[in-house]
Write a structure and sequence with these properties.
By secondary structure, the chain is an all-alpha fold. It is about 80% helix and about 0% strand.
Length: about 300
């Protein structure tokens, strides 16, 4: 177990380095000059433009800029926001909690209802209930988040007046964004849970348990669901990453504070340090979450632990 954990953690280090390189290079391939965005109408002064390039380090070669940026990231210094005139680390701390709240709420919703729909569909395989459940899951899985968010706002906020149109940090302002973000994930989890339950239900030990006369709920709880958890576990890690990336769209649609809305604002204003910091943070969180899932596998499955 310890050797497995060491190997997984060691594999994470080059991955993080690769992520930092890609984030840095991709941001610098974006057309446009951030200095022009900062100066506005004053960008026709060549001396002022050159001086600001030098102050921001944009006149250095890309390798030198990358090393300078990485040194700051390691120490928690992500630079200074061009547009908001504040340390990027402060912006991350301010907005990370709101995005985490939205992501956890959407994940909880998708896990509860996705698992419920998947189990019911598996137990009613090849029936109308199965077809309807999987059809609804496929519809939500196929819907773009921005379009689904607008429909949900129109129905529940504009027509029914149950929730505010603009999502704030209150509980009532969290429900519609979490619903929008979690519905697509719920559809994926429902389909995956259905497949896992059906596969686990066809195992020999489950057939023997049924032949012994055990109740269906006992067989489902003791033999089917426990074995299905291992198959669903990696999906949770992947879905957390998808929810973090999906928060960019949902937070923008609902005008909700968070990393997603911060990222969109920074992209529009060509705020390179903020864009780099947000994209890097989301990528690192995604990689770490999948590492945690990998480390939980041997804990839940004794066969892997002994191997």
């Amino acid at each position: 177990m310890s050797g497995y954990a060491v190997r997984r953690v060691a594999a994470l280090l080059p991955l993080l380095v690769g992520i930092s390189v890609l984030v840095f290079l991709v941001i610098h391939l974006v057309p446009g000059d951030p200095v022009a965005a900062i100066l506005g109408t004053s960008d026709n002064n060549p001396a002022l433009v050159a001086r600001l390039h030098q102050q921001l380090g944009l006149n250095l070669p890309l390798p030198a800029q990358y090393l300078h940026w990485v040194k700051g990231v390691v120490t928690g210094n992500f630079g200074y926001s061009y547009s908001q005139q504040i340390a990027v680390s402060s912006l991350l701390v301010t907005n990370l909690g709101d995005t985490a709240q939205l992501t956890v709420a959407a994940l909880g919703f998708s896990l509860v209802f996705g698992s419920l729909v998947g189990v019911v569909a598996a137990r009613r395989r090849n029936t109308v209930t199965d077809a309807v459940g999987m059809g609804v899951a496929l519809i939500f899985l196929s819907m773009p988040s921005f379009w689904l968010g607008l429909i949900i706002i129109l129905v529940f906020a504009v027509q029914l007046h149950w929730f505010p149109v603009v999502g704030g940090v209150s509980f009532s302002g969290l429900i519609l964004p979490a619903l929008t973000l979690g519905l697509a994930s719920m559809g994926f989890i429902a389909r995956f849970v259905r497949s896992s339950v059906i596969e686990a239900g066809d195992q020999p030990h489950v057939i023997i348990a049924r032949a012994k006369g055990l109740r269906r709920w006992t067989v489902l709880r003791r033999h089917v669901l426990r074995n299905s958890v291992l198959a669903v576990l990696p999906v949770i890690g992947l879905e957390l990453g998808n929810l973090l990336s999906g928060a960019v769209i949902v937070e923008t649609v609902f005008s909700r504070p968070g990393l997603g809305r911060l990222l969109v604002t920074a992209i529009l204003s060509k705020d390179y340090p903020t864009v780099q910091a947000v994209v890097l943070l989301i990528a690192v969180i995604y990689a770490v979450l999948n590492l945690v899932v990998d480390l939980l596998y041997p804990v839940l499955d004794p066969r892997l632990r002994h191997g």
